[in-house]
Amino acid sequence: MISAIRPNLSLLLGWRRSEYHLPYAICEFSGYLMGKPWENWIPGVLSKGQMQALVDEAVLFVPNDTIGAASLDLTLTAEAYKMKRGSVKPGGDKRFSALLKNKDLAEKLPASPEGFFVLGSKETYVFEVAERLDSAFAEIGIYGQATAKSSVGRMDVLARLIVDGMDKYENFDAPNLKGQSGQMYLEITPFTFPVAVQVGKPLSQLRLFYGRPKDVEISSPEIFRTVFRDSANCDGSLSVDLENTLIGGLETAAFRATVGASCAPIKLWESGSLPNPCESWKFVKTGKDRRLRIENDQFYILRSKEKIRVPAGVAIYCRASDETIGEMRIHYAGFVHPHFGIRDDGAKGTPLIFEVRGHQVDVNLRNGERMANLTLYRMSEDAEPDKTTYGKQTLKLSGFFGDWPQELREVGSDGTVEAV
Fold first, then answer.
1. What are phi and psi of 138, to 5 degrees?
2. pLDDT average per 10 residues of sequence, the chain (420 residues)
């Protein structure tokens, strides 16, 4: 109510601070009278309404309708660069834009004639992000944590946030934002597939916290029992499920990416026609011992044994229990939002998806091996209900591929499948 009457109150008083230089004490009294929304918040992950309040207070710039129930989508601009000598870690001591102007490190990336950007596999690119932070976050106490969207991670695309003034990827600390530009960038490296990206489309998401994330973690057997439905696991860890499941009438425990010589760049945005998954993925079935061979430099999609269901007052971050297990690199599943796993088919919870890449040598993975840990955070206020529903299929590709055909048949012995 206060924010709604603020413009009229300013007109009624007949002054604006910037024009008439009212005495400081009067200005401070006016600010006290009007108040700020965060003065009534409790520490935790910000909800959609709270993020919108930051936009209304002009301390968060969001040019598009990208605010979700518990995170903010980050959209690409046309300010794009190819990194000539590979990834450049943020230093924190200078603005990242200065590095992009260094012609030895980066070159401007032009859009294609159709208006999108083609990114080659195993090349690194940097895009400026349309959303922007204000240095006032330092005084308010707003912290940030980012991760690639799940549909992007399942494409074997690494998308990492860079914030001016920070010396590490994927997050920012409130005190370090003081005096910074608030500009954000996204470093993108496709590994398996060449991809195409478009201005205005999101590849990453940012979760905002009021207060330090560490201070709003929640952990207890009781909350784990609430989140882990019908599971004996109450320590917050996730294990891999290598039991075969039926898809299109065929058994598989995992999907393995395959790239043909004629593979066209895959669009990382919603489009009318989606690629046929049979042309880019193979089925990997396990035997009686339920073990899976992770081959060097190959990319796999697997699922968790545990099924989770997230209440409205909880947000989750899923991180690999170890970045490398043996010689296998695990891509963490990222954010799990409030209301995840509340299904329309009566099932109690939904498994999480793992993205796994073989690293240096082959690895033999066993059923039930521990893969990830969940960090649970308190929401500052309950998230709005999510209209998303989760289907019965538990092993799922990125939404940038079409659905598997209802009837499949094997082609040869290497896991290649095709529609009947």
1. -65, -40
2. 36 34 38 72 97 96 93 96 93 82 94 91 96 95 95 94 92 91 95 94 97 96 86 80 96 92 84 89 96 92 92 92 54 81 76 87 90 94 74 80 95 93
Q: Can you read off the two tokens belonging to residue 370?
A: 């521990």
- Please state, in angstroms and rounded to a whole number, the distance separating the CA atoms of residues 265 and 255: 20
Q: Cβ distance 85 to 64 under 8 Å?
A: no
DSSP single-letter state for residue 67:
B
| Residues facing 148 on adjacent strands | 204
Q: Are 160 and 170 within 8 A, CB to CB?
A: yes
- Three-state SS for 84? coil
The domains of the chain, with CATH numbers, are 2-35 (no CATH), 44-215 (2.70.40.10), 219-419 (2.70.40.10)
DSSP track, 199-237: TT-EEEEEEEEES-GGGGEE--HHHHHHHBTT-S--SSE
| Beta-carbon contacts of residue 132 (< 8 Å; ≥ 6 apart) | 60, 61, 182, 183, 184
Is pTM beyond 0.85 here? yes
Tokens of 315: 């947000």
